[in-house]
Amino acid sequence: MNGVPPQIRPDPAKGVFETFLVVEGRLIEFNAHLARLGASVAVLFGANLTGETREAVEEHARGISLGRLRVTLTPIGDEGELTREIVTAEVDPALVFPTAERAVVAHSVLVEGGLGLHKWADRALIAEAEMNLGAGEVPLIVDRGGVVLEASRANVFAIRGETLVTPPADGRLLPGIARRRVMEAADACGLLPDETELTIDDLIAADEVLLAGSVRGIEPVRAIDGAELGHPNGAGIRVAAELRRGWMPSGVKI
Fold first, then answer.
1. Is the pTM higher than 0.85?
2. CA-CA distance, 66 to 141, in Å (whole number)?
């Protein structure tokens, strides 16, 4: 397990952001993402999310077949004013709800107290954790004692029998939009969704480990800290298929 130096912490003055998956011009989970962004700027900066921001995001999404859109809001002074930046990029279809052949490898990184409830625009801590990782490898953020919080770009889930477990939203991690939808999808598939503390050892012993984020959907994990995980029993595929049905516009295939 690697540790992040205590001085490397997100700087709130650099703002917060949201990233959307865009499919055929449609922003997936648009309202939920905007609501979370609005809550963050209200709590952190005493600012209000304007209708102008909503319109600008919708305008940038038009004409995108498959891509991601990131909107970043940064405070100016102490008057609750914000600057806005919107960036879009194409997304490789193979990265959205990837197959087992593209399963990721996770490497734990100790971040005491976690990153908290907001999507910080300051990604220096994440960049530090990713510095020596290769393609298909992601940082897994843990607290002391190997307590799992989240991955750098997604929430974490473990399937144990017919139960799908994710760490509790206790203020140390970002409760992702996809996180909630995955728990709903699990319930629809006959799995019992549960919020319970997980350790690295718990993940290694699980039937399956999944990551869930707003752009890639559900990603399987094949190894953690060098330990190869067990073969999936199919429950993760069922959950991914249920989430995909709820997200993708009718007739769209990826």
1. yes
2. 29
104-143 pLDDT, tens digit per residue, is: 999 999 999 999 999 999 999 898 888 888 888 999 999 9
Beta-strand ranges (E) seen in 33-113 are: 66-76, 81-90, 104-110
Encode burial over 137-148: b for 16+ CB neighbours within 10 A, e otherwise: ebbbbbbeebbb
Q: What CA–CA distance (Å, rounded) separates 33 from 73? A: 13
Q: Give pLDDT tens digits for 165-192.
A: 999 999 999 999 999 999 999 999 999 9
What number of other Cβ atoms are within 10 A of residue 6's Cβ?
A: 9
Pairing of strands 26-27, 16-23: antiparallel
Return the CATH superfamily for domain 95-247: D-amino Acid Aminotransferase, subunit A, domain 2 (3.20.10.10)
